[in-house]
Amino acid sequence: MTHATRAEKDPLGELPVPESALYGVQTVRAMQNFPISGLRPLAMFVDAVVWIKRSAALTHKETGRLDARLADAIVAASDEVLGGQHRDQFVVDVYQAGAGTSHNMNVNEVLANRANELLGGRRGAYTPVHPNDHVNMAQSTNDVIPTAIRLGALAMLRDLVPALAGLRDRLLEKGRELDDVIKSGRTHLQDAMPIRLGQEFRAYGLTIERNTRRLNDVADFLRDLGIGGSAVGTGVNVEPQYPALMIRHLRKVTGLDLREGEDRVQLMQSMGDVAGFSAQLRTLAVDLSKIASDLRLLASGPRTGFDEIVMPAVQPGSSIMPGKVNPSIAEMVNQVCFQVIGNDACVSAAAEHGQLELNVMMPVIAHNVFFSMLILTNATTVLADRCVAGIVANKEQCAYWVERSAALATALAPQIGYARAAELSKRSVKENTLIRDLVRREGVLPEQEIDTVLDLRRMTDIGVPGK
User: Fold this and answer.
1) Span 393-416, pLDDT tens digits
2) Which residue out of 188, 293, 348, 425 is catalytically annotated?
């Protein structure tokens, strides 16, 4: 079976391009050079670059540098892509030449070919719209790609923040619901003083809240755009009014709060703002994974673990052990968080590997930041809706463990001293006797004081037991 092709030339020579393709020769060359992972650009990486091309066409139409008919065709082609069309035409592997020139040219060629079709031309002729001369006018990969990373991260934050808010709210709601359930606290995975199950869940919710605030804080640095820096940040071939007009058009098409960067050379040299944002995604992942692991511990059992909470059963847990139900959602969240931590390690190394006026490792930075945000958004939504919302307390088991905690002797220390309390704690474990029963049997406290000093509920609030 043969496939029709057309011949296209770039500065390196001629190559056949599939006749049906909206992309062109430079994209084909990239496909030949980088058959690495089979991973294509994430949707947000495409959207962000198309936003820039659309805004540039409108800017140059406004300044008169680009013929209005050509600008309108580029805008129309951009709107088709942003509306979901032609997505199969963005084909350059995630791992590609430095800076992202191949991805930038893939977008330039698709928009140029589609714009020409809309004007009555044919694919591959690049007339009247040329991918470099018109779609890429006054741009360089070197200012397009870092701007696209900033735009994409800010845009994806609009989905991640509500997902985090949903998880926070579920956790806080569960904290209120379970606030009357007293259980054993644990430190070092050993018995510790009592805590309310609701206090644990409220703390999880507040952890998510603090992470969200930090994300929003560090994201503010991403609002400074270096578009207009062109090749090395100095703005060669760029009209003086171009940066401000670009910000205006980008604000309109994205709905984002954006600023013209103070120093375009600095914004091109450094990927520090993006690395800082990625680092906060990693910190979120660290906290989120800890919460997921805690839920797995609390649900462990049902006979040989803590068994203090029961998670919703979402799928059979074993292909060989009948009736087994696993904490599947929490396990998924752990895996997502491990991936995000690894993604940040890649971003950190790539951000450090810029040289002089440019960081050439931007394609892998873009992929990892966007991928982290995508999977964190989806994982937190699933955790909130399919796990946390349906968690119930095993009140009987919580009561069973807390009464058997050797740490209850801590409440006796203000009355009888640390050394005597430690002795009772050790005897409680050795003799398998409740602290309460041992205190009563040994006459450690007057009978009328025992229940006051060993009041489990009062131990979960600030204060000295018995006072």
Assistant:
1) 999 999 999 999 999 999 999 999
2) 188
Q: Which of 422, 420, 414, 407 is nearest to 467 (CA)?
A: 414
The H or E element containing residue 381 is helix 362-386
Q: Which domains does the chain have, with CATH numbers?
A: 5-137 (1.10.275.10), 143-229+255-394 (1.20.200.10), 404-459 (1.10.40.30)
Q: Indicate the residue type of 389.
A: A
Q: Is residue 318 flagged as an active site residue?
A: yes
**Nearest Cα to Cα of residue 401 among 172, 241, 181, 225:** 181
For residue 20, give the DSSP letter.
T
- Which DSSP letter does residue 358 get? B
Residue pLDDT, tens place only, 131-186? 999 999 999 999 999 999 999 999 999 999 999 999 999 999 999 999 999 999 99
Q: Is 78 a catalytic residue?
A: no
Catalytic residue from among 293, 300, 318, 348? 318
Where are the strands (E) in 215-317, listed by range? 224-225, 259-260, 309-310
